[in-house]
Amino acid sequence: MPRTLDSQITVEKTPSYFVTKEAPRRIFNMSRDTKLIVVVRNPVTRAISDYTQTLSKKPDIPTFEGLSFRNRSLGLVDTSWNAIRIGMYAVHLESWLQYFPLSQIHFVSGEKLITDPAGEMGKVQDFLGIKRVITDKHFYFNKTKGFPCLKKSESSGLPRCLGKSKGRTHVQIDPEVIEQLRDFYRPYNIKFYETVGQDFRWE
Question: What is the CATH number of domain 17-164+192-196?
Fold first, then answer.
């Protein structure tokens, strides 16, 4: 981590931290005062998005359905597949709560980050204990990508939009497969909502 002054906050972003078993202990040993921000989204949508991204790089991979289930007729979901395992948020959170109190972890709704980016960023700024500098004036909705873009400042030129890998159209998945995955995730989602005290309304 770079050296920072007492008046500064250092932010580091790595998507795999939340699901990496060793990460909580390592981060705790580095700094037990670390504040953690985790962006979560509907785990079924997240898995489909993950698959869509992988498919764009490896077009010859098996079908989403084939990777999601060990036995579909019995409803046995394959939790060894990363795209499925990552969305089991309640399981991953248990490891973090062994080292960090819930008061040091903030969960951002991935859905609201798209529909109300300023509102979600306001909550992040409050969690970090900093002045609300980023407001709705800093965002505009990019219809092509289907995501909000960040203006560098209220008056400056070029906005910062998500890269090419974000916002692509998801592959079409059999609605019955989606329903089976919703059923699979439901108990994990409920436990997650109860633990964090926030209902993300993924049902």
Answer: 3.40.50.300
